[in-house]
Task: structure prediction
Amino acid sequence: MNKLLLFTFTFLLFISCRFKSKKEDIKDDVNIASKIDMMEADRDFSAMSEKEGLRLAYTEFIDSNGVLLRPGSLPMAGGDAMDFLTQSNDTSITMTWDPKDAMLSASGDLGYTYGVYSLKANNADTVIYGSYVTIWKRQQNGKWKFVLQSGNEGVE
Result:
């Protein structure tokens, strides 16, 4: 009887551990897919900036409560950030960037990307490079929008 009880307990323990690892594997797969989706949103953001302009790209990808951190300025959030973006004149510059990596929260709905950007005046040969970080939030419709964006010059 004791052997049967020990066998049953061992079997149940094995099954529960095995089930848990499969659940973790599924969660890891979902997080990898979410990370890829978030990085793809960042690349789409850059492509829109290059093709249609920085202002339009930013207004398309910013969350309604998004925050912009810019040199020489206090943080701009929500409506203030949107006002800043809509009043910006981006006709003389082209800005693109490329995410180098990303991290995702355990819940899979918040994460960040970082990488290098390039900024070029349309009538000049000089290109300014810098680094950036963007914090992203998954929207209820599944799309990623940024909730905080900042960068700095200085990458060569």
